[in-house]
Write a structure and sequence with these properties.
The chain is mostly helical and 618 residues long. 60% of the residues lie in helices and 3% in strands. A four-stranded mixed beta sheet has the order 1-2-4-3. Strand 3 and strand 4 form a beta hairpin. Helix 3 packs across helix 4. The longest helix has 27 residues.
């Protein structure tokens, strides 16, 4: 057999390092839109537009080709794109682990000589694949797995350059390609720049004199700028008016507004030790890899500290940089710390590599101390996979989203509740973004206008909805005095005489609406003038709702924060409906609504029992 052809040169373990994680992710992949940023990213990808600041142009252009696949919905295809990028990130772990262990030997000889290294690297890749953070990101559209893959590739390129340089060969192309990928990777997320100190250290530690090589640094910088030019997507596509054009970067001012994330609050909290500890715990190796994984990480760092100290120092520099910026500079308020957990994905990727080194170290030591036999060898190799199997078993149920239709149904139920040509104001991102996907991508209920209340303060957002806001008084409000509250009230007054006006559940409970009577229709509320007498909740909404994963025999195990909130909204809306029906003498229907609320959210049963007692119902 000829082993010199393409097939002969393929590394089967490398293929497994990608395909095993991808297979796992396909088993648990969300079939459609989910909550949080999902609907927004899906709409931006499908329309080749711009997502929230800083725009994520690389992720959008990466995922766009997947939308042409002849499988599932647009949402499923984009989720598949993320699963592929997560598989590539796991391949990056395998590649780096093999590189870190290059030259390491065990008692195994001949054609089996490389098996301990490759099995250790494969175990590290699968371990990373099954961590709670990456698994959750892989199940729906997220840019962080793609970013982790790019970070791993740049690290690998820096090692190739070091290897060639120390061997007396000049191969600056590795650095130039790495610089290009750094610039490009910023289009997946700006935290790409936090890895640059580590890459610079890998160059500098090979020879301190490289800092004087101005020509090569200038060329590398030019390649970095070339990669960063992916952000021109924001400008080019803004002139094409895509469905989602966050920030409308048609000019330099708006482009910088997007890039510098000026649309986000900048007020930082006073930090005490409790907040600092919570911020530091956003990076939590024992939680992601278990305590055993943490021990293996320490063993891997200790093992390489003697032989390849620059790798350990590179990891520690990355750790220090991430913590200094994400914890020290960002100083995130406690309720938003969960958002920063995503940023550490590249660091978890590197941690998995050192865990792979730790696995190899344990294997090598055990092999030296135990008798040499085939059953023992097989047993040792099998033990390498105890960690990934444990993490897989621990995280499978919580990350199984293959029946997660809750966001899709919540949004479609909202659309079903609205009459023709209505307008409905939304508040929370998870209430708005799935609606953007259904209307902008799946083309549902295009007769409706669905303004997102927090965005009414921005002219670019008003410009994106000319049917509703052309000639609006909102443009005349001074920008420094605009708030979601006064822009909503101004807009409602404009729209109220023309069409039915509704607000979603989150808007009702986020803003004070004293000048209106709210008429419940399922999970939304119509705004009426005070002169309209109060009437019972509409009867025709709940029978047309789809409640997959919320009520019945197919309840879904997966629960994230916003999924739990959606389920609670269903229950609370039914409680409000039932309570009002009881007050209006509609006892049978009121009890039915309250019983359904208890079935959806059992934790509300004590409150429901109190409502029933207060209304004389046993």
């Amino acid at each position: 057999m000829n082993n010199n052809g393409i097939l002969g040169r393929l590394d089967g373990f490398a293929i497994l390092a990608f395909s095993i994680p991808l297979f796992i992710y396909l088993l648990t992949l969300a079939p459609t839109v989910t909550f949080f940023d999902s609907g927004e990213f899906l709409t931006a990808i499908a329309s080749l537009g711009t997502a929230h600041s800083p725009g994520y142009p690389l992720f959008i252009n990466y995922a766009k080709p997947f939308t042409f696949l002849p499988i599932g919905s647009i949402a499923f295809r984009c989720n598949f794109a993320t699963a592929v990028s997560a598989g590539l990130a796991c391949y990056g772990v395998y590649l780096l682990t093999v590189k870190f262990l290059e030259g390491e030997e065990t008692a195994w000889q001949g054609r089996f000589r490389q098996l301990p290294v490759k099995f250790s690297a494969l175990a590290a890749a699968v371990t990373f694949a099954c961590t709670a953070r990456l698994w959750l990101q892989s199940n729906h559209d997220k840019p962080y797995p793609l970013l982790a893959f790019i970070c791993a590739m740049v690290f690998y390129l820096m090692l190739l350059w070091r290897e060639s340089y120390l061997a007396g060969e000049e191969r600056p192309a590795y650095v130039y390609l790495g610089a290009f990928l750094c610039g490009l990777g910023a289009g997946a997320h700006q935290i790409m720049v936090l890895m640059i100190p580590t890459y610079a250290f890998l160059l500098w530690s090979a020879d301190h004199r490289v800092v004087l090589r101005f020509k090569e640094f200038f060329i590398a910088f030019a390649f970095g700028v070339l990669g960063f030019s992916i952000h021109l997507h924001l400008i080019v596509r803004a002139f094409q008016h895509p469905v989602l054009n966050w920030g409308d970067s048609k000019n330099l001012e708006q482009f910088l507004w997007n890039m510098l994330r000026k649309g986000y609050p900048t007020e930082k909290p006073n930090r005490d030790l409790g907040l600092l500890w919570a911020q530091l715990n956003a990076f939590n190796v024992p939680y992601e890899f278990t305590v055993v994984g943490m021990a293996l990480l320490i063993i891997g760092l200790a093992y390489l500290c003697v032989k390849k100290r620059e790798l350990v120092l590179g990891y520690l520099i990355a750790l220090g940089t991430f913590l200094a910026v994400i914890v020290g500079y960002f100083n995130t308020p406690g309720e938003f710390i969960f958002l920063t957990e995503e940023f550490f994905t590249p660091l978890y990727c590197l941690s998995a590599v050192f865990i792979g080194v730790g696995l190899f170290t344990i294997f090598k030591e055990a092999n030296q101390r135990l008798s040499d036999s085939v059953p023992l060898r097989v047993g040792l190799l099998a033990l390498l996979f105890m960690l990934p199997l444990t993490i897989f078993a621990r995280n499978f149920v919580e990350n199984d989203q293959h029946e997660n239709y809750i966001a899709f149904d919540y949004a479609s139920n909202t659309l079903r509740s609205l009459p023709q040509n209505a307008v409905m104001y939304t508040w929370g991102d998870s209430g708005a973004f799935p609606l953007w996907y259904l209307q902008g991508v799946e083309r549902m209920r295009e007769d409706l206008d669905l303004p997102h209340t927090p965005h009414l303060v921005f002219d670019w957002y008003l410009d994106s909805m000319p049917r509703m806001f052309k000639g609006s008084q909102l443009y005349n409000l001074p920008k420094d005095s605009r708030s979601p509250e006064n822009t909503l009230l101004t807009s409602v007054m404009e729209q109220g005489s023309r069409r039915p006006v509704f607000v979603d559940f989150s808007t009702k409970y986020s803003l004070d609406l004293p000048n209106f009577v709210l008429h419940q229709r399922g999970i939304i509320f119509r705004l009426d003038s005070p002169s309209v007498p109060q009437s019972p909740p509409d009867l025709d909404a709940w029978p047309i709702y789809s409640l997959r994963g919320v009520l019945g025999d197919h309840d879904m195990f997966f629960r994230d924060l916003d999924t739990g909130k959606a389920i609670l909204i269903y229950a609370t809306s039914l409680m409000e409906s039932g309570q009002m029906r009881l007050r209006m003498g509609q006892k049978e229907m009121g009890v039915r609504d309250l019983q359904m609320a208890a079935a959806i959210s059992p934790e509300t049963k004590p409150q429901i029992d109190e409502i029933l007692r207060a209304n004389g119902v046993q």
